[in-house]
Amino acid sequence: MDLAPELSGVSPTEMRATLGRFATGVVVLTVGGEHIHGMTANAFSSVSLDPPLVLCCVARDATMHGAITAAGHFATSVLRADQERFARYFADRGRPSGGAQFDPVDWLPGRHTGAPVLADALAWVECRLEQTHRAGDHSVFIGRVLGTGRGAGTAGLLFFDGAFGQADTSERRR
């Protein structure tokens, strides 16, 4: 069954509104070194456990696209429910560029990549860029996981239907 003719009539506005009904986690992607940069993203996923691979999707015209391509590595900080301010900050195109964008944020350089890892993140993953796939106006970056870590907390930040929310597992852990 060929769905291409039917899909060609879907506008970007309709696509965003429809897929906004899918709850996603919220992360901050970062690159360290000469191309230091941060960006809020919700297009992030595990790909494989063996070998350990993850993916992130970045618009080809985004500063982060060039940063990941040039550096060959990235880190991802998974945000806690109370870190919405970081999601908003790294989504703001008016923030400073380069290393100055990290001045108001507590972070540590990742052990494997040097990419900023946000302090108190729920979890973090450091990756070496393994593959890049062109996909429409974005690229899908596949990263080989070099290291991971988990912070404290039981509530993660979600994005659903254009708004932030949370998933809290504290009741389940009792």
Automatic annotation (TrEMBL):
<dbReference type="InterPro" id="IPR012349">
    <property type="entry name" value="Split_barrel_FMN-bd"/>
</dbReference>
<dbReference type="Pfam" id="PF01613">
    <property type="entry name" value="Flavin_Reduct"/>
</dbReference>
<dbReference type="GO" id="GO:0042602">
    <property type="term" value="F:riboflavin reductase (NADPH) activity"/>
</dbReference>
<dbReference type="GO" id="GO:0006208">
    <property type="term" value="P:pyrimidine nucleobase catabolic process"/>
</dbReference>
<dbReference type="InterPro" id="IPR002563">
    <property type="entry name" value="Flavin_Rdtase-like_dom"/>
</dbReference>
<feature type="domain" description="Flavin reductase like">
    <location>
        <begin position="19"/>
        <end position="166"/>
    </location>
</feature>
<keyword id="KW-0560">Oxidoreductase</keyword>
<dbReference type="GO" id="GO:0010181">
    <property type="term" value="F:FMN binding"/>
</dbReference>
<dbReference type="InterPro" id="IPR050268">
    <property type="entry name" value="NADH-dep_flavin_reductase"/>
</dbReference>
<protein>
    <submittedName>
        <fullName>Oxidoreductase</fullName>
    </submittedName>
</protein>
